[in-house]
TrEMBL record:
GO terms for cellular component: plasma membrane. The keyword Cell membrane applies. This is ABC transporter permease. Coiled coil: none annotated. It is a multi-pass membrane protein. It comes from Candidatus Flavonifractor merdigallinarum.
Length: 786
């Protein structure tokens, strides 16, 4: 036990010596940045709010009340009131998805069942929005038609031809039922679920993202030193002192676990996710899988920085491809398959399963691929960990070379020598051509993912997952009614867990659960066991509820008609009479005058958000992630010693510091360009922003390594890059930021680059000034050679 505790204490000291307490504080800062800058990351995968227009020709209290109710629907970002003399075409050209005209005497005609038709003019430039509005409008109209047709069918079934007094009774009863159904249509849902699903879904998404990042960060910091410790002979000396090899490797796992546990505990305390022990088990499984994967990636590295580069590239790949930054449903199928190699994908699945009330067996059935990935990684690492230790230290001979070997190149300061040294350092920073190739392939993949996610190809219809917990004709009829609506797709699921999985994966915007006892509730007039849960930031949630409530209200009206007829006849209806009455309801519905007409016309498409995230945001993340990781090479002890020896030679500052800066700029430009190109040739402003942004980040990297963080840059790169990119607005619309955060975003290099890419010359100038300032702060100073 003592040898294990000794190496465990050694690993903890290595961690705090490399990163200090800042690594434990950065997760808390990341949570704040996620809530500020990633609150609407998933919005682009769902139907966005859109404007409509209303022309009120009735001009009554009822028509004004209807207009105000429509304005309260979250799906409609704005309700334009048509002015006298203003044409419908002009309203469509202002960006309205539709123009709804309420005719004169509409409500009086509806009371007497004469039914004046509402005119709906749809914008054919906004097909999804137009079809969705039509479905919402149709659901409300169907409530009116159902109450009218059911009322007339019941009266004629019970009384035959109606006299004037019976007509008045019919009108009065139908209007009362219509008012109750129209105002109480949302009561068919579980109101507790409706009030909490927005915040809960958004919180689960952020929690899963943060949990996966923590489970990757701390194991990486623990395993990165394995190769160097083996090379330096730490393991043989430990075994010679009485320790066992397995305890040496086990200490890495325990150290990473001890470091991850406090951060995860703070995460649990902050979000308080549902699921309790299942969430904790999810975190343990994710941690174990991540440790194995990272062990396989880093065990064959020759030094700690190479191991960190590999781990950081996998972390960047996981964030972009795994659905943490871009919704999976917007990505090509091939990329969605790749997401199954990442932690964020399984973190979301596990958190959603815990929220759904699953058990341990279901959780293991969902997360077993994580353990399989970890086992494969550990198996790949085993030969490297058990291979004989060679005594050739890779970097020491170069450090001990005599100064005169550097004099010929240094004595001829000029463009050739500078470029030669820049190329040499670029290759060394990247770990050779293989490392540079791996970097560029990762950047290209990230750029392709961002280009696809931000291409504007949003959903083509409103997708709803449906789980019928009872197999009945009434439940089947409700699903068939929903499937028949334009702009609505129903994904039938066998279990609630399957439905929530579809919700978490982005395959559906909401989950409709038809509870047991649905048929009995229709027959008795009780509360319907329906619940609808929306995905995070799904602005279509209220519209989906309107559509579902409309169809359920139609069913409820028909069942109520059967009960009403039995009460009027004073006896239960036979099966044949029920069939006859239902058929008469259908006949009366066909005889009703139309309640609306639909036409289409050309108009303006939905305007794009000028502050929405674009591909340059992903490029900014890739550049910062890369340079913060690669820039740690300039803080190596042997690099500083070479710098000190060159100081007395002619042109030393240009050769040493200039080649450092040029190497970082070259790597940053390559990474940024490769990231942007999959989305097409960037606009000139985007090239200008990239050319100004890269020197700024390169200077910032050199300043931080020189002034404060020294060799910690690559370790802290994931947190530092993600935090500043979130605050800078790389993955969320600045319109959703508070004024303070919008101002703060302009203080980050990413925020300035994004603004420059949108045409702000002043922001590009500020980037160049910041680059000059950072390069001056990072300039070499006097060294003490030890």
């Amino acid at each position: 036990m003592k040898p294990l505790l000794a190496v465990l204490w050694k690993d903890l000291r290595l961690f705090f010596g490399a990163t200090g307490l800042i690594a434990l504080l950065l997760p808390l800062v990341l949570l704040l940045a996620l809530q500020a800058g990633a609150g609407d990351l998933m919005r682009q995968a769902y139907v966005e709010p859109f404007p409509i227009a209303i022309r009120d020709e009735d001009k009554t209290v009822m028509s004004r009340s209807l207009t105000n109710q429509i304005a309260e629907i979250a799906l409609f970002s704005q309700v334009l009131r048509a002015e006298p003399g203003q044409s419908d075409t002009s309203l469509l050209e202002e960006g309205a998805a539709a123009v709804i005209t309420i005719p004169k005497d509409f409500f009086y005609d509806m009371y007497t069942m004469e039914n004046g038709a509402v005119k709906v003019l749809l914008n054919d430039e906004m097909p999804l929005e137009a079809s969705l509005l039509r479905s919402v409008f149709l659901s409300v109209i169907q409530i009116i038609r159902a109450d009218q047709s059911v009322g007339r069918a019941v009266f004629t079934f019970c009384y035959g031809p109606l006299d004037q007094e019976q007509e008045w009774e019919l009108w009065h009863q139908t209007s009362v039922q219509l008012l109750q159904d129209a105002l109480g249509r949302q009561q068919v849902f579980d109101q507790a679920v409706q009030a909490t699903d927005y915040a809960a879904a958004s919180g689960r998404s952020l929690f899963a993202c943060a949990l996966s990042l923590l489970c990757l960060f701390f194991p990486l910091t623990a395993v990165r030193s394995l190769s160097e410790e083996r090379t330096l002979g730490v393991l043989p000396r430990y075994v010679a002192a009485g320790g066992r090899a397995w305890t040496f490797f086990a200490s890495k796992f325990l150290a990473a676990l001890l470091l991850t546990a406090p951060a995860c505990a703070a995460l649990l305390a902050l979000f308080r996710p549902a699921g309790g022990l299942l969430v904790i088990l999810t975190a343990l499984l994710l941690f174990a899988g991540a440790f194995g994967v990272l062990l396989g990636l880093t065990a064959w590295a020759r030094e700690g920085m190479a191991a960190q580069r590999r781990g950081n590239l996998y972390l960047l790949f996981s964030l972009v491809v795994g659905g943490a930054l871009y919704p999976l449903e917007l990505l090509p199928p091939a990329v969605q398959l790749l997401s199954r190699l990442t932690l964020p994908y399984y973190a979301r699945r596990g958190v959603e399963l815990a929220y759904a009330g699953g058990d341990v067996g279901a959780l293991m059935g969902t997360l077993w691929p994580v353990l399989a990935l970890g086992a494969v990684g550990a198996a790949l690492a085993l030969p490297a960990l058990l291979r004989p230790v060679t005594r050739s230290a890779p970097a020491m001979p170069a450090i001990q070379n005599p100064p005169q070997q550097m004099e010929p190149a240094a004595a001829r300061p000029g463009a050739g020598a500078l470029l030669a040294l820049t190329a040499l350092k670029t290759r060394a920073m990247s770990g050779g051509w293989a490392g540079l190739t791996a970097l560029l392939l990762t950047c290209a993949l990230c750029g392709g993912v961002a280009a696809q996610a931000l291409s504007g190809s949003g959903p083509s219809q409103l997708s709803v997952a449906a789980v019928p917990l009872e197999e009945s004709d009434a439940a089947l009829e409700l699903l068939q009614r929903l499937e028949a609506l334009e702009g609505v797709a129903v994904l039938r699921c066998a279990t609630v867990q399957e439905g929530r999985a579809a919700l978490s994966e982005g395959r559906a915007e909401g989950l409709l659960t038809i509870g047991s006892g649905y048929t009995a509730a229709l027959e008795t007039g009780g509360d319907l066991p329906l619940s609808y849960e929306s995905a995070a930031s799904a602005a279509s949630a209220q519209a989906a509820r309107e559509i579902i409530a409309g169809q359920a209200s139609v069913q409820r009206a028909r069942s109520r008609g059967l009960r009403d007829a039995a009460e009027r006849l004073g006896r239960p209806l036979t099966t044949a009479e029920q069939s006859t009455l239902l058929a008469r309801m259908d006949e009366e519905d066909q005889l009703l005058p139309p309640l609306y007409t639909v036409e289409t016309a050309s108009g303006a498409p939905l305007p794009a958000d000028p502050m929405a995230p674009n591909a340059l945001g992903c490029g900014a993340l890739v550049v910062l992630f890369t340079l913060f990781t690669w820039g740690a090479w300039t803080a190596r002890a042997d690099a500083r010693r070479v710098e000190a020896r060159l100081k007395s030679l002619p042109g030393a500052l240009l050769l040493s510091y200039g080649s450092d800066a040029l190497s970082l700029c070259l790597i940053g430009l390559l990474a940024g360009a490769v990231c942007l190109l999959p989305g097409g040739w960037p606009a000139p402003l985007e090239w200008e922003a990239l050319l100004c942004y890269v020197p700024c980040v390169a200077g910032l990297t050199l300043a931080l390594t020189r002034c404060a963080l020294s060799g910690r840059m690559d370790v802290l790169a994931p947190f530092l890059a993600l935090i500043t990119c979130l605050v800078g607005g790389c993955f969320g619309s600045l319109e959703s930021f508070s004024p303070l955060l919008r101002t703060l975003s302009r203080l980050t290099p990413q925020g300035l680059a994004l603004a420059g890419g949108r045409g702000s010359v002043s922001c590009l100038f500020l980037l160049l000034l910041a680059a000059a300032l950072f390069l001056w702060l990072g300039r070499p100073r006097a060294h003490t050679i030890t």
